[in-house]
Amino acid sequence: MIEKLYFYYTNDLHSNFDQWPRVAKYLKDATSKREKHGDAYWTVDIGDHMDRVHPISEAFKGKANVELMNDLHYDIATIGNNEGITLSHDELYSLYDDANFEVVCTNLHRTEVGNPNWLKRTVKIESASGIRIGVIGLTAPFNNYYELLGWHISSERQALEQYVSELKKETDIIILLSHLGLSEDQAIARKFPDIDLIIGGHTHHLLRTGEKVNHTLITAAGKHCFYIGEAILSWDHEAKKLVRQEAYATDITHYQVDPETETNLKSLQMKADQLLGDTIVQLEKPIEVKWFKHTEIMQQLTNTLKNHTKADCALLNSGVLLADFPAGKVSYKDVHRICPHPINPVVVKLDGNELIEVIRASLTKEFMELKLKGFGFRGKMLGRMVFSGITVETAFHVNGEEYVKNVVFEDGTKPDGDRLYNVATADTFTFGRLLPEIARSETKQYMLPEFLRDLLVETLQREFASTL
């Protein structure tokens, strides 16, 4: 007899709650169908369900996300970097206390004694017919962040070598929930053929019908839950082996919504508004935000960044602020709306030549108009760079292109190629190739758990509060 096992999954929702009622409707319909036919099925999440860009996740520090997953009867989840490194140590420690599902993250460890009760190294599930399934969960190793928060991510290869061999003896099928990214999933599939299915995320890749690497099927459903994933494993009871693996990602952007979930989200939004609604500052007049022009608010925020980090200089892109501040009472909700990014301050060491190159690159039209997606940035485009601790003089070529004419520190000296400077900026630029000199710096000091918006609150209260 051939029995099919069904796995429905979500990955990288990033608190896109506009889409969640469709997710709810799809999962309710799909699981109801499985119930009707007596099929074995499970619902799992691959991490980054939470993103503090949304006021609900900000207000409840991710616990509302867990509540929403409980409502849909999730069975298993692993964590992504947004759960792992955008919360304080205590907030992550208690995040899943009320989860009605298992949380598996094989490579997450608390640096002090005593992991949270919800944290499992592996999870074993079994179908009604007796098929034994072992589940491993892995998350991306951002240890520069985790270790500042009292956690550690161990080697995924070592974790797999230990637990795959253990599960091979105790289960019939092995599944990996991987918040590592597609290239890592492919490498794991090549090295660990005993893993039957890898359900992936993190790099927001969409595999509509999966990808087979040797024996292992890899699948993922993009980002923001515009797609829902389904994996189907066919087990031959007579041969006692897996005989087929299938994967599908279904576009649900035009699917019906679940009214109950919509109502729950409206209630959560009202509660979030209340939690974030306290006034933090009274403004006598509006504060203007411009992405391509120098503004007082960006200058003062960059000054705060320099002072907070005690760096030699600081640079911050104007696109981190999304809208003007109106006159009158300003709440934390307003600050979150205007600066929603889960971006931390960071200090990197650059020599004088590298610093000049960073300044030059940041003032190019291509950089300023870049519509960045990811690396913590949740805005529209990067915008003009603002500096503190250094004066940057620019001029224009006859073709209208801006160039850096002179760079001088506050003490009148120019950047020295033989000297290292502490440069404060947004941690966004330590990833990828936006500003290669910053990304390549061998010394990066991340400031956690504070976000840029925490420095923005300080700036508003110190520099812009009404004296009336």
C-alpha geometry: globular
Which CATH class of the largest domain? Alpha Beta
- What characterizes the major β-sheet? 7 strands, mixed
What is the topology, as strand order, of the major beta sheet? 6-4-3-2-1-14-15
CATH homology-level superfamily of the largest domain? Metallo-dependent phosphatases
- For the termini, the CA-CA separation is 80 Å
Q: Would you tell me the overall average pLDDT?
A: 96
Oligomer: single chain
CATH hierarchy: architecture of the largest domain: 4-Layer Sandwich
Rg over C-alpha atoms, rounded to the nearest angstrom: 24 Å
Helix content: 25-40%
Summed up, the helix count is 15
Number of domains: 2
Strand composition percent:
25-35%
The unreliable regions are none
**Structural classification:** alpha/beta
CATH fold-level label of the largest domain: Purple Acid Phosphatase, chain A, domain 2
Q: Would you count the extended β strands for me?
A: 24
Family: Belongs to the 5'-nucleotidase family.
Organism: Oceanobacillus bengalensis
Keywords: Hydrolase, Nucleotide-binding, Signal
GO molecular function, one term: hydrolase activity
